[in-house]
Amino acid sequence: MTLTLPNTTERALYLFAGLMVILSVALTHWVHPGFIWFTLFIGANLTQNAFTGLCPATAVMRKLGLRSERERAEASQR
Q: What gap in Å lies between CA 20 and CA 12, rounded to an integer?
């Protein structure tokens, strides 16, 4: 298995969300218990994304040039 950087917005979002959860739990454990609110914010954002499809991080990733899996599939069929 070869590890590669995410090349779609979906995969990049999973990576970003996972890293933010790990960071927020580490901050809660080692810095201050109040960082649990950061973890809860991340969970709430992921939940609303599941229902609405809107995510600020995805908008930033798109501006950085990442495309969705669907866009990549459509481009490869041309």
A: 12
